[in-house]
Amino acid sequence: MRHTLPLAPQFYVTAPQPCPYLDGRLERKLFTALQGEQAEDLNDALSKQGFRRSQNVLYRPSCADCNACLSARIRVADFKPSKSQRRAAKKNDHMARRTRAPWATEEQYDLFRKYLDERHADGGMADMDVFEFAAMIEETPVKSRVIEYSVRSDDGRTRDLAAVCLTDVLDDGLSMVYSFYDPALRSNSLGTFAILDHIRLAQEAKLPYVYLGYWVPGSPKMEYKAKFAALEVYAGGQWVDLNDPETFDNRAHPLSNDPIAEQVAQIDLPGAQPVKKS
Asked: Of 48, 92, 113, 179, which residue is the least packed, with the fewest Cβ within 10 Å?
């Protein structure tokens, strides 16, 4: 099914398929291609409206009877780490950070395979080969970076890649597209550490937000995101503070979600007049 606007780009919707986060539910995504000279402007604009990037596609959940997937971001200026997050930062103060162009390496892929086999062996990415991995890293039409974290030895040299994050640089923040880490170092809370380091990077670059992807209430895989202070979620067409995660109902009345064509019509595109929300 295809829906178009008078202005490019064109938007599409996927067929319903089993939800990877909540058992017994179906997911459906609204998506558009990310390409051409306006790719960065489109990525910036749609990221502010709950979309996420996967290679050269921007997508947002558009499920018929569920509102569980909520795009989440941290307000950098207001963030204060919890005690456990401070412990995670201290536990990893021996890590060395390296920022690279989006180019895949065998070392990254080896770590990626370890991570999937240990943490997501039954997930949708479990069968990704080295070529698909390279595409995930390298097929980006926007400003992206690969941020690597390695264990730093006492003499200052680094060894063994510990964590990797594919990150987009938006006009208002850093978007953590995909992260993975060495499962043998799970006790180091490397996922938390990577987010804390991105907050630090955003502060240094004077960017107001760190985008974390989707928070899904009721999904154990996504619970960690709600533990970060100054967290906002995109709900009802606007960013709102996540003060109490328990207040979010992850189901929706069948009449509460707009038809796909209306959802598309309400999207603010770069260079277009903003759509007034009724």
From this structure: 113
